[in-house]
Write a structure and sequence with these properties.
Strand order of the largest sheet: 1-2
Strand content: under 5%
Distance between the termini: 26 Å
Largest sheet: 2 strands, antiparallel
Number of helices: 16
Number of domains: 1
Shape: globular
């Protein structure tokens, strides 16, 4: 009798754990879908994910913290340590709170089983496709100035800046691509449903178009890194990537032959990649120089998280009339705000990132992990010349993708005898 009761109790606990993980996955998917459209909703949604993550951990009496999450914990820890000397404490507290919530969200994603983690491939793809197609509805005339350094009419969609849209599309592209490849791959000798195939191609076309017309050079460069890593880590995707590349070349050739203002603006933007700061109105060189001065002045401690606007005071940068929120570079922003601790954090993250990619290449990782790793690597490269993560939607998306990095075994103590649902 006692054995039967124990079996029934374990079955109930297993069922409850399954429901809790489903609720957590639903909260994550909702955050991915809503974040680009509503800046105010990002923090409450992240808090909801944190709550579900805590409930899952407490119920299962087990928490799995993969190496990528251990390394990324240095980000909120380092930011917290700068609070005592941060010049704008309310703003700094807000940034630190977002970082801690982001890390807890990533921890929650890491607790999901393989099936629910695979759901995130579709969740990221669907969210990005909706944002892309909605943004393209606002596409107007483009005009190029200063040799492609300035483009009027760039696409930005529901986000605050075109570069933010470009960054979001760059991170979503490997998810959309691999979802499309899965939709067209035969399964048991049969091609999947036509609706899924057509929907995946439409979503992919929308994401690529939004990425192109955001005219974000940093996002374009990050995309090249992303696609290269997908090809290296996921050999099965190489044929699909070749087809995708040929399709892009064909569409580009047809567009060039047709001509028009769109083609002229995109072409000028591509040409400006060789000298991205030659525009007289580009404020980034002045901001980079100012951030370098801050690093020289306070190399050990930095000025505190979010301290650049306050320390800049009334200084002007190019055509900007307000102080910059960041140094337009992940490296300079980290060094200027966090000093040597931030440098150590960046170094650890780079080493861990390289190790994660090497192991994925050696063992053959799940699709969703490949997509997340490639997306984050491309985002980091983009971050060398920009810093889009002060946008709440990008902050939330980035942390959730960190949670999708390789996790190894995530079976809980409660469900270890039952296996993953």
């Amino acid at each position: 009798m006692s054995a039967q009761l124990r079996t029934r109790r374990e079955a109930r606990e297993h069922c409850t754990a399954t429901r809790l993980r489903s609720l957590l996955a639903a909260a994550v998917a909702t955050t991915l879908a809503v974040a680009p459209w509503s800046e105010r909703a990002v923090a409450p949604l992240m808090a909801l994910v944190c709550v579900f993550a805590g409930v899952v951990v407490l119920f299962e009496r087990h928490v799995h913290v993969p190496v990528a999450l251990r390394a990324s914990a240095l980000v909120p820890i380092g930011q917290t340590l700068t609070l005592p000397y941060a010049p704008d404490l309310p703003w700094s507290w807000r940034l630190v709170a977002m970082s801690w919530m982001g890390w807890i969200c990533a921890l929650g994603v890491a607790q999901l089983d393989a099936r629910r983690r695979a759901w995130m491939l579709v969740a990221v793809s669907a969210s990005a496709a909706v944002v892309a197609l909605g943004s393209l509805a606002d596409l107007g005339a483009l005009s190029s100035h200063e040799g492609g350094g300035v483009i009027n009419g760039r696409l930005q969609g529901p986000l605050a800046q075109p570069n933010e849209l470009g960054s979001l599309m760059q991170m979503a592209l490997p998810f959309v691509l691999l979802t499309t490849f899965a939709a067209w791959a035969p399964r048991d000798g049969r091609i999947r449903a036509r609706t899924w195939r057509v929907t995946s191609v439409v979503g992919l076309a929308g994401v690529v178009a939004a990425l192109v017309f955001s005219l974000s050079r940093g996002a374009w460069i990050g995309t090249l890194v992303t696609l290269t890593l997908v090809a290296l880590v996921r050999p099965a995707a190489r044929r699909g990537l070749m087809t995708f590349g040929l399709a892009l070349v064909l569409v580009g050739a047809l567009a060039a032959a047709a001509g028009g203002s769109f083609v002229s603006a995109v072409s000028a933007r591509f040409d400006s990649l060789t000298s991205p700061t030659r525009s007289a109105s580009d404020e980034r060189p002045a901001i980079w120089a100012y951030a370098g001065e801050l690093v020289d002045g306070r190399p050990f401690t930095g000025v505190g998280v979010g301290g650049l606007p306050e320390t800049a005071g009334d200084a002007t940068f190019g055509m900007m009339n307000v102080a910059p929120l960041h140094a337009h570079s992940i490296v300079l922003t980290a060094l200027a705000e966090g000093g040597l601790l931030a440098l150590a954090t960046l170094s650890v993250l780079l080493v861990v990132g390289v190790r994660v990619l090497a192991r994925m290449n050696a063992r053959g990782a799940p699709v969703v992990e490949v997509a997340a790793a490639a997306a984050l690597a491309g985002a980091f490269v983009h971050g060398v010349i920009d810093f889009p993560w002060r946008a709440p939607a990008l902050t939330a998306t980035t942390w959730l993708l960190v949670g999708l990095l390789p996790v190894g075994v995530t079976r809980s103590r409660r469900s270890s005898t039952k296996g993953n649902p």
